[in-house]
């Protein structure tokens, strides 16, 4: 059976058997929020109580399963309880695939779930993790709940748009004209080859693209406008980030701008903050790099 017809990247091994071989237990649940129903998952250490809680948000087009769970599994193997949800308009959560007309509402929906997880695990240190667009969502959740988390971790966060994702101003003006006319759900291709720019390892890129829940269609008009709005807002408010944070970014990332991560580090009022820039690394630090040269050291640290 070909990989694209399988529900998981590892092949035909039953889920329970695979997770047990990794030393974790997995649970899937639907969670109701005021905005809609989220598909959620948890990965817990198999034979010990968790020492902390990490709530992880994937990037654009992805979901909480497939290869994103390589990160959640690694977190659980390190002794933490890992929780993730499919972002609204992604995977098995509510919404038209790829259509996010309001990032603040989407972030609030995710935060509703993560706060419920936090409340069910009193006394445990609790952290947020966000990758790419999930990094933007994580920063929005921080601003919505500024004192609710012990720290955040950002991997190639969408704070500013990278060179391969820039859209000409006249195209954006066109989007602004047609979106209020009921055309915000239109799918219009605006970017170059994102696969080449996102994943340095072509073998891993091929596997990632076999995700049966991947949103690989052109970006929807309103979603693109929201991306532009949110990155502008974030750049105006980076100085107000007050939570302890670790931000990771590949220097050769052209999807999200590594200089924006550097700017976050420089201007945020957080007293406890760390920036790690990786020479020669692309956008997908934890899933798409060669020979685990970046991912494994990050997870081990």
Q: Brief description of this entry?
A:
With 301 residues, this protein is an alpha/beta fold. It is built from ten helices and eight strands.
The CATH architecture can be given as 3-Layer(aba) Sandwich
How do the strands line up in the largest sheet? Answer: 1-2-4-3-5-6-7-8
Helix and strand run: HEEEHEHEHEHHHHEHEH
- Using the CA coordinates, give the radius of gyration: 18 Å
Q: Could you say how many structural domains there are in total?
A: 1
User: Average pLDDT value?
Assistant: 92
Structural class, by secondary structure, is alpha/beta
- What CATH calls the topology is Rossmann fold
Helix % is 25-40%
Residues in β-strands, percent: 15-25%
Number of helices: 10
CATH superfamily (homologous) name:
Alpha/Beta hydrolase fold, catalytic domain
Biggest beta sheet summary: 8 strands, mixed
List the helices and strands and how they pair.
Elements: H1 15-21, E1 24-32, E2 37-45, E3 52-57, H2 69-77, E4 80-85, H3 103-120, E5 126-131, H4 133-144, E6 151-155, H5 169-178, H6 194-198, H7 202-208, H8 221-237, E7 245-250, H9 258-267, E8 273-278, H10 295-300
Parallel strand pairs: 3-4, 3-5, 5-6, 6-7, 7-8
Antiparallel strand pairs: 1-2, 2-4
Helix pairs in contact: 3-4, 5-8
